[in-house]
Amino acid sequence: MERPTRIVIAGGGVAALEAAIALRATAGPEPSITLIAPNEDFVYQPLTVAEPFALGPTPHLPLQQFATDLDVELVRASVEAVGESHAVLLDGGGFVAYDKLIVAMGAPREAVYPNATTFRGENDVESVHGLIQDVEMGLIRRVAFVVPSGVAWTLPLYELALMTAQRAFEMNVDVELTLVTPEDRPLGVFGAKAATDVEQRLQEASIRLVQRTVAEIPARGMLLLEPGGEQIEADRVIALPISRGPAIRGLPNDPDGFIPIDSFARVPGTDGIYAAGDGANFPLKQGGLACQQADAAAEHIAWSLGKLEEPQPFRPVLRGQLLTGKKPQFMRRDVDAPSESDEVSGDRPLWWPTTKVAGKYLAAYLAEYDTSSAGSEDIAPGVRRRAFLSPGSDDALEVPLRGYEYTGRWGAASP
Length: 415
What we know:
The protein is an alpha/beta fold. The protein has three domains: 6-108 and 244-304, FAD/NAD(P)-binding domain, CATH 3.50.50; 110-242, FAD/NAD(P)-binding domain; 331-397, no CATH class. The protein is 22% helix and 22% strand. The strands form seven sheets. Strands 5-2-1-9-20 form a five-stranded parallel β-sheet, with helices on one face. Strands 11-18-12-13-14 form a five-stranded parallel β-sheet. The longest helix is centred in the last third of the chain and has 18 residues, at 287-304.
């Protein structure tokens, strides 16, 4: 008997989980899927911005639970390199053979400013939480939020700034907030309408916006803005990190260490290797786009196995949910669209379920997991959660909604 195709997914984040579900949905139960991840849990990083404000802990999903649901083998390890003979080399020795490989390992994030608090996600929650507590007690009067040059995704900093302003208002504390960014307009990647809405939110929150500007922080509490040379004093500074490519040995990398991909997420010059997520060389780094790249890879693999008639290439559509401390702002933009006619921005949800990451399969899985995790030990493996495997087309995410029908822990806080 012919052995089943061996598909290996390297990574334990958004793109890796989306790829596994998409493969099961398109290729069926026959391929053998192995997930290689160093982490025990999937951490929903987009919601880590809420934790410093005591809005609830960041959701976690045990990867073993996910592997059981999807009939996937889980290997707890880090990938050191990709060998020439269709094998993934693991740290500490050992290897896993593959016929098809999806690299979805993310990208390291590095601090730029030694004299600032860098927010990279879960590991920096405590330091930002302490800063917010100082704001609440009136110990801090001036906070600057800085986007360094080269940051590929700026939305979390706007969330931190807006939620800080809302918390200060709730505590009746006067605080001077400044946001410095090299962007031409705030969150301009979502288009003109979204940028205008964000500008209005910042103005209403009394946050000073400094655009088209790069900040240097030569000393703690001091910002030097270029061009112009303006100096700003701040009690504390919160900055975003920059992403570096994973530079995986055995794979092609661009000068910054990112993995090149084509429109089907294939890695050029390799046999059966795909890449998705922050480690790929697409310039925007965002969870929804990572899911779309993973879908393109999964569909192409399913097509190569004769399980799908026609795979769909990666077509970047940005769907973003901006947390503000009040009603979130929902934004949508087709990155490749020739005009701005399809750009949408407002406080009404634009996709369903309204999880923070609008993944075609992952959003449905997380919503289903959230509603069925209580008492899930009574559900036999292989019987639980089936609906997420057939969510329809990518456009099915976008359905008319009356309001906040879904406000689970994977999406926005209640308005």
